[in-house]
Amino acid sequence: MAAGSPDPKEIEELLLGGELRYTRVDAVRLSGVSREFSGRLWRAFGYPSMPDEAVAYTEGDIAALDRIRRLMDEGVLDEDGMIRLVRAFGQTMTRLAEWQVNLLRGMLGQDANEQPFPDAMDTIADIAEKHIGEFEPLVVHAWRRQLAAAGTRAMAAAATRENGDPAGRPMTTVGFADMVSFTQVSRELEEIELARVVEWFEETAADIIASCGGRLVKTLGDEVLFSAETPEIGAEIALTVAAAIQDETEVPDVRVGVAHGPVLPLMGDVFGTTVNLAARLTSLARPGAVVIDTELAARLEGNPVYEVTRIVRRPVRGLGIIQPYVLRRHPKPSDTGGDASA
Questions:
Q1: Among 170, 301, 122, 249, which Cα is nearest to 327's?
Q2: Which of 98, 199, 210, 316 is paired with 38 by a 20 to 30 Å CA distance?
């Protein structure tokens, strides 16, 4: 450790909110879970494996294990269900934590790829010590908000099934927005500039998706996947994202592919032929354009807001020959120079 650098153990205990005082053997004994199950939990959280004799656990770790054991004893979840839940928490919090640390380092004028200098680490530790108690409730609040939204979607999906959906799965509009020529752009830009482009794209898409009433399912660097409960919301998201990115001269245009049909929701993601079709449609779209499938086109046909144009049938990998459509907004009279009767 370099002279003047903060003590890593002190930083770790500060962020964990307690002293490292227990071994794995202690944790198993005090919490009442089995040694094997504690290991599965630890790996599911995404933590590195620790030797049995390593002092690596806090009172908070013991309390978490005890809480997990009680939830299983009460029949809320079985072991496999708990492991899946813990893995979801671990993967989500890993990304959140990395994002927060990089954000703080960026505020201090340091590249996330550089070795952190002592002054920066001191500042981060100081911020954590003074304000971590204020950040923690924000995480819980955001989780409750998202849980309420997910619960509402689940109830709507159940109502759809009760009303006779033959697939037994929720009918959803899903879309991909993909940055054009991203590989070429990544070769032309410095890493920090590329990171800013990707961050701007993700933030812009996320804001539009949320404001339109959709859900950001996941981001894949140069691509975002979104879902919407109605065809109209999905269409609005697709067109708004394409237009917003097109207006930004420093960012490549996007191609958007959207499909409507049954999907399988699982662990916050969505799967199925409808999702695959939306991905394939993206590859058929021109830069700045939105291409949709037959089902979505049929549901938007006759809507005065949108214009649906059939294009040439295309073969796509894994789905055979499909009939794509281009989606646009209906031009307003002022856009064409005519009037409402023209």
A1: 301
A2: 98
How far does the chain reach from its first CA to its final CA, in angstroms?
76
Task: Give the number of other Cβ atoms within 10 Å of residue 311's Cβ.
Answer: 12
Rounded-to-integer distance, Cα 190 and Cα 325, Å: 37
Residue 57 DSSP code: B
Which range (61-70, 137-146, 162-171, 192-201) has the least confidence?
A: 162-171
Nearest to 202 by CA among 223, 181, 175: 223
Residues 28, 26: Cα–Cα separation, whole Å? 6
C-alpha 27/C-alpha 309 separation (Å) is 63
3-state secondary structure of 22: strand
Task: Report pTM.
Answer: 0.66
- Partners of 224 in beta bridges: 177, 219
Q: What is the pLDDT of residues 234-274, one digit of tens each?
A: 999 999 999 999 887 777 889 999 999 999 888 778 899 99
What's the DSSP call for residue 115?
P
CB 289 within 8 Å of CB 326: yes
Nearest to 81 by CA among 136, 40, 33: 40
Q: pLDDT tens-digit profile of 137-189?
A: 888 888 888 788 777 766 666 655 554 455 556 789 999 999 888 878 778 88
